[in-house]
Structure formats: C-alpha cells, structure tokens
Amino acid sequence: MIWAAIVLSVAIKAVSSQDCGANSHWETCGSACPQTCEPSPFQVCDAVCMTGCVCNAGFVLHNGDCIRHDDCPAKECPANSHWSECGSACPQTCEVSQGGCGAVCVPSCVCDDGFVSHHGACINPDHCPAGNPLTGR
C-alpha cells in the first residue's frame, strides 16, 4: 500500500512538473481562456482555473504554440475592408446610418472609408438596396 502511494506521488509530481513547450510554463491555476491570435472579446473566464502549460507574458497561443502577438498571421478581411484592433461593435451598414455604440472596441474587419457593411461585404452606400437611410432612396 505504501509502495502504491509512493508511485502515485511520483506520477503526480511528474505530470505536474511537465515540460512545457517554448515560451510557456506550467501553472496549477491558469486561465481557461488563454490569449490567442484570434480575438475573443466577450469571453469571461477569470473564475475558472485550468492546470497545465500556459504561455509566458507577451506570448499568445497559436496552433498549439506560444508565439509573440506581433508574429500572429495577418488577418484576412473582405474587399474594401481592413483589420482594426479597435473596430466598432455596431458598424455603419445599409440599414443603420450611424453606429451609435459609443467607444466600444471590438477587434474586427472594418469597412474602408466610403464603404458600409452589407451582409458581410463592404459596399459603396450608393449600392445599398432601395429604402435605406444612407441614400434616402
């Protein structure tokens, strides 16, 4: 019985001091929602602990590796748009002439100047369907 307890203790110690990959370390109470290259502005995970490897400060998780945030792949955005770390939570669309959300930042693709969002695409407001507030048609 004592031998089994010793083996179990050694096994637990081996797992808990597990070697982590580059730019990461072991934590017994790490975040359940690690920072990644992909934005997740609405996650609430502070109250949940996860035991395991976590990225060191200044690094984010990407495809299982911890890399510098600056090394994350470029964000792909549709035509007439670009990536913004501080896009609007309610962008201007064919249906809504002014966002009206205040200063709420959401990392996202945003339409270039002179374009509005319409069903996931950024189009010239003149091409919005009839009866929209932007063109008055």
TrEMBL record:
<protein>
    <recommendedName>
        <fullName>TIL domain-containing protein</fullName>
    </recommendedName>
</protein>
<dbReference type="GO" id="GO:0030414">
    <property type="term" value="F:peptidase inhibitor activity"/>
</dbReference>
<feature type="domain" description="TIL">
    <location>
        <begin position="20"/>
        <end position="72"/>
    </location>
</feature>
<dbReference type="InterPro" id="IPR036084">
    <property type="entry name" value="Ser_inhib-like_sf"/>
</dbReference>
<feature type="domain" description="TIL">
    <location>
        <begin position="77"/>
        <end position="128"/>
    </location>
</feature>
<dbReference type="InterPro" id="IPR051368">
    <property type="entry name" value="SerProtInhib-TIL_Domain"/>
</dbReference>
<keyword id="KW-1015">Disulfide bond</keyword>
<feature type="signal peptide">
    <location>
        <begin position="1"/>
        <end position="17"/>
    </location>
</feature>
<keyword id="KW-0646">Protease inhibitor</keyword>
<keyword id="KW-0732">Signal</keyword>
<dbReference type="InterPro" id="IPR002919">
    <property type="entry name" value="TIL_dom"/>
</dbReference>
<dbReference type="Pfam" id="PF01826">
    <property type="entry name" value="TIL"/>
</dbReference>
